[in-house]
Structure formats: structure tokens, C-alpha cells
Design brief:
The chain is an alpha+beta fold. It has one domain (about 1-80): Histidine-containing Protein, Chain: A. The protein has helices at about 10-15, 20-25, 45-55, 70-80, and strands at about 1-5, 30-35, 40-45, 60-65. It has a 4-stranded antiparallel sheet with strand order 1-4-2-3, covered by helices on one side.
Length: about 80
């Protein structure tokens, strides 16, 4: 399992529907992908989970990826959250 802590950028600036787009990015990978912040941990492939998690600007988030393509998944989620 790989983990990386990032600070979320202003997602609404670069994405029309950031919640749905984040889930779409996560669903491209076979690995289990989680987002964690302030003792809340969710499945990044769950639209309801991501909506409840509500990643927002300057939020510190730990991305976790576990599986065959975990490195690629981690890079893709990091790129989405910080760009």
C-alpha cells in the first residue's frame, strides 16, 4: 500500500463537476483507493462517499492506494487534487 499526503487546490477552478470527475479518475484503476482526513476515511470510487468527504481548498488529505496499479493510481489522484 502506498500513501501520500497532499493539500487540495481549488477544484472548482479547474473542474466543472469535481466530485464526479474525482470518482471517474479513481475508477480507472483496479487498486483500492482511499481518501483520509480528520479521522474520516472513504472509498474514492464511491460518489456518495466523496460527496460526504467534500474535498475543499487547502484541506490536508492522505491518498491511499493498494493494488497492482497503486503507483499510477496515487499519481493520478494527486495530480487531480493538487492541480
Amino acid at each position: 500500500m502506498l500513501k501520500k499526503r497532499v493539500n487540495v487546490s481549488d477544484l472548482s477552478k479547474n473542474h466543472e463537476n469535481p466530485i464526479a470527475e474525482l470518482v471517474q479518475v479513481a475508477c480507472r484503476y483496479d487498486s483500492e483507493i482511499t481518501l483520509e482526513s480528520d479521522n474520516r476515511k472513504i472509498n474514492a470510487k464511491s460518489i456518495m462517499g466523496v460527496m460526504a468527504f467534500n474535498p475543499s481548498e487547502n484541506m490536508a488529505v492522505e491518498i491511499g492506494a493498494d493494488g497492482a496499479d497503486e503507483q499510477d493510481a496515487l499519481v493520478a489522484l494527486e495530480t487531480f487534487l493538487v492541480s
